[in-house]
Design goal:
Helix 2 crosses helix 4, helix 7 packs across helix 9 and helix 8 packs across helix 9. 62% of the residues lie in helices and 2% in strands. The protein has a two-stranded antiparallel sheet. The N and C termini lie far apart (75 Å). It has 2 domains: 63 residues, no CATH class; 76 residues, Winged helix-like DNA-binding domain superfamily/Winged helix DNA-binding domain (Arc Repressor Mutant, subunit A, Orthogonal Bundle), CATH 1.10.10.10. By secondary structure, the chain is an all-alpha fold. The chain contains 9 helices and 2 strands. The radius of gyration is 32 Å and the shape is elongated.
Amino acid sequence: MITRAINKQGRLIRAPDNKVLDLSTLNQAQEECLRKSGYEPTPEELAECLDWETQTVERLLVGMREPFSLDQTLSSASNSDSRSDFTLLDVLPNENSVDPELAVIFNFQREKLANWLQKAGLDEREITLLFLIYGVGQKQKKTQREVAQVLGVSHTRVWQYKKRALEKARAYAITSPSKEV
């Protein structure tokens, strides 16, 4: 009972009692092999010593690793300056961040399209409307009702603006000498 209580309190990540016992056995075998041979035993050697499967030993070795904090300070080995210290969280990529190179490319293409639409005779409201409806420069498209709320008009009016803007763009695309957008 005492051993079970120590197991529950002693580890940051709780493991089942039978696994804790296996980890303890593996740890003892690892220390014994280290004393006898003078070097860290491989998983295969430990498996042979304990008469276990190698996969079992490898899984348990992963379980023996101590967890670490993402806020734990890491330091650069080449520089002893405390300003070069950083955390693992500083190094891991942020899933929500935008790749700067892609952001520049998208912004350039958005501006190029906006310039082309202005040459086609669309005003700012029509360009904004098309960008919102088709999701240009945004994560996703907006519905006509959402666009209506943004522009402060009815959704019927959004449909009319969209129709007129697309007609202007088509007419310009047909008549313009440059097909580049």
